[in-house]
C-alpha cells in the first residue's frame, strides 16, 4: 500500500526524484494528454458529484504512469491551509520544488521542477504562473473552515460544494497562469492540489462513515454509484463506474495518506438503520495512521491537536458555534483530554511545530472567487457568494470567541 506524503516533508533529494519523473512524463507527452483530457470533460466534473471520484481516478492514473518510471514514485499532497495567510511564502513554491511566480511579459515559470518548460496544449506556450496579487497571493482558506466542513456536512453534494467553492478554487486562482485554466494539469501543482482535495474527501468519508454516499447532480439527473466516471478518448478509464473509486484500498485505489485514516479492513457494506436517516455503516473505516485524524483539515499534527482542544473550550454555551463543529461538540471530554495528554498525543502540547510559542493572530478572511472563475465553471454566483459569506461568518464567530488559532 503506497502512502502519499505531505509535500512539506519532502527532502531536496526527493524533489529531485520527482523532477526526474515529471521530466520523463513530459517528454512522453503525458502532460499534454492529461491537460487535453481534463479540458474535454471539464463541464462534467465541476459543479457535479463526479468532481471527487473523477479527480481521484485522474490523479491515480498520472501517479501510475510515474511509477512505470520510478516504482517508488507517489504524488505528494499539498496542504494549502498551512500557509493560507501568505501562500507565496510556502516552501512548496521554492525554486528547488514547484517553483514560484512567473516572470516576463508572458509569466513564464523560470524555476522549479518544471522551470522553463514549453507546453504544447492547447497551443505551444511556456508554462505560466501569475500570482493573484502581483508578487504575492490573496489569502487562501483557513484550516478551521475546512474542519467545519468535514464535521458538519451530512451529504457528499454539500461537502463537494463547500470544497469546490473554497479551497479548490482559491488555490487554482492564487497560482494563476496555466493553473487557472481548463488545462490546469499542465502544471504539476494540479496533481498535488487534487491529492490534497482527495485526502480531505477521504477524511470526510471516514468521519461520517459515508464511504459509499454519492448524491447530487449527475450527468443525467441524480448521481448514482453505477454512473460511469467521466472520461475522454485521450484518457480512458475503461468505462469504470463511480463505485470503483469510492473506497481507498479497493478496486485499484491502492494508496492512503500519512495524515488520514488507513483503508478499511473490509469493503464497506450498505447502510443499516431507520428510515428517518438516523443510520450507520455496517463496517467502519480502518484505524487512523495518526490520532484525531478526521476532525481537522490540517495535516500538521501538533497544530490540529491545539485546534481541536481550543475549539472545544471555545464552544461553551455557544450553540451557534457548536453547529459548525458538531463532532467536537459531541465528543466525550474525558476521551478528548486522554488523547491529547497521552504519549501518542504528546506532540499536541501548547507549542508550535518549531518548539516555540507562536503569536496568536486572528483568522483571515479568504479571498472571494473571481467572476471569471465562476463563469468558467458554470457555477451559480449566488451559491458561491453564500459559501464565501458563510465562511466569513464562521471566522467572525471564532475571532470573537475565546478561540486562539494555532495556525
UniProtKB/TrEMBL annotation:
<feature type="domain" description="Tyrosinase copper-binding">
    <location>
        <begin position="46"/>
        <end position="63"/>
    </location>
</feature>
<dbReference type="GO" id="GO:0016491">
    <property type="term" value="F:oxidoreductase activity"/>
</dbReference>
<dbReference type="InterPro" id="IPR008922">
    <property type="entry name" value="Di-copper_centre_dom_sf"/>
</dbReference>
<keyword id="KW-0186">Copper</keyword>
<protein>
    <recommendedName>
        <fullName>Tyrosinase copper-binding domain-containing protein</fullName>
    </recommendedName>
</protein>
<dbReference type="InterPro" id="IPR002227">
    <property type="entry name" value="Tyrosinase_Cu-bd"/>
</dbReference>
<dbReference type="Pfam" id="PF00264">
    <property type="entry name" value="Tyrosinase"/>
</dbReference>
<keyword id="KW-0479">Metal-binding</keyword>
<dbReference type="InterPro" id="IPR050316">
    <property type="entry name" value="Tyrosinase/Hemocyanin"/>
</dbReference>
<dbReference type="GO" id="GO:0046872">
    <property type="term" value="F:metal ion binding"/>
</dbReference>
Amino acid at each position: 500500500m503506497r502512502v502519499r506524503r505531505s509535500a512539506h516533508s519532502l527532502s531536496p533529494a526527493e524533489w529531485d526524484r520527482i523532477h526526474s519523473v515529471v521530466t520523463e512524463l513530459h517528454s512522453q507527452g503525458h502532460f499534454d494528454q492529461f491537460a487535453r483530457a481534463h479540458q474535454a470533460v471539464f463541464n462534467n466534473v465541476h459543479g457535479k458529484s463526479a468532481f471527487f471520484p473523477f479527480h481521484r481516478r485522474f490523479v491515480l492514473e498520472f501517479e501510475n504512469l510515474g511509477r512505470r518510471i520510478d516504482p517508488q514514485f507517489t504524488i505528494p499532497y499539498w496542504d494549502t491551509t498551512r500557509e493560507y495567510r501568505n501562500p507565496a511564502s510556502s516552501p512548496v513554491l521554492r525554486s528547488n520544488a514547484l517553483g514560484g511566480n512567473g516572470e516576463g511579459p508572458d509569466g513564464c515559470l523560470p524555476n522549479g521542477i518544471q522551470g522553463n518548460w514549453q507546453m504544447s496544449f492547447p497551443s505551444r506556450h511556456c508554462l505560466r504562473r501569475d500570482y493573484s496579487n502581483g508578487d504575492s497571493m490573496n489569502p487562501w482558506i483557513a484550516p478551521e473552515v475546512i474542519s467545519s466542513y468535514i464535521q458538519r456536512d451530512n451529504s457528499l453534494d454539500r461537502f463537494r460544494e463547500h470544497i469546490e467553492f473554497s479551497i479548490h478554487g482559491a488555490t487554482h486562482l492564487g497560482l494563476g497562469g496555466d493553473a487557472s485554466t481548463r488545462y490546469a494539469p499542465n502544471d504539476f501543482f494540479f496533481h498535488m492540489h487534487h491529492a490534497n482535495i482527495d485526502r480531505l474527501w477521504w477524511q470526510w468519508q471516514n468521519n461520517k462513515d459515508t464511504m459509499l454516499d454519492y448524491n447530487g447532480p449527475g450527468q443525467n439527473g441524480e448521481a448514482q454509484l453505477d454512473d460511469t466516471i467521466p472520461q475522454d478518448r485521450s484518457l480512458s478509464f475503461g468505462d469504470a463506474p463511480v463505485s470503483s473509486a469510492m473506497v481507498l484500498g479497493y478496486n485499484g485505489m491502492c494508496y492512503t495518506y500519512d495524515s488520514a485514516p488507513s483503508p478499511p479492513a473490509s469493503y464497506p457494506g450498505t447502510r443499516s438503520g431507520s428510515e428517518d436517516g438516523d443510520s450507520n455503516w455496517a463496517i467502519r473505516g480502518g484505524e487512523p495512521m495518526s490520532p484525531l485524524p478526521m476532525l481537522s483539515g490540517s495535516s500538521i499534527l501538533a497544530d490540529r491537536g491545539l485546534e481541536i482542544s481550543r475549539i472545544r473550550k471555545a464552544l461553551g454555551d455557544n450553540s451557534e458555534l457548536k453547529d459548525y463543529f458538531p463532532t467536537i461538540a459531541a465528543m466525550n471530554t474525558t476521551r478528548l483530554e486522554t488523547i491529547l495528554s497521552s504519549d501518542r498525543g504528546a506532540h499536541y502540547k501548547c507549542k508550535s511545530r518549531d518548539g516555540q510559542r507562536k503569536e496568536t493572530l486572528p483568522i483571515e478572511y479568504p479571498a472571494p472567487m473571481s467572476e471569471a472563475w465562476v463563469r468558467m465553471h458554470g457555477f451559480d454566483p449566488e451559491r458561491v457568494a453564500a459559501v464565501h459569506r458563510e465562511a466569513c461568518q464562521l471566522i467572525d464567530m471564532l475571532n470573537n470567541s475565546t478561540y486562539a488559532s494555532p495556525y
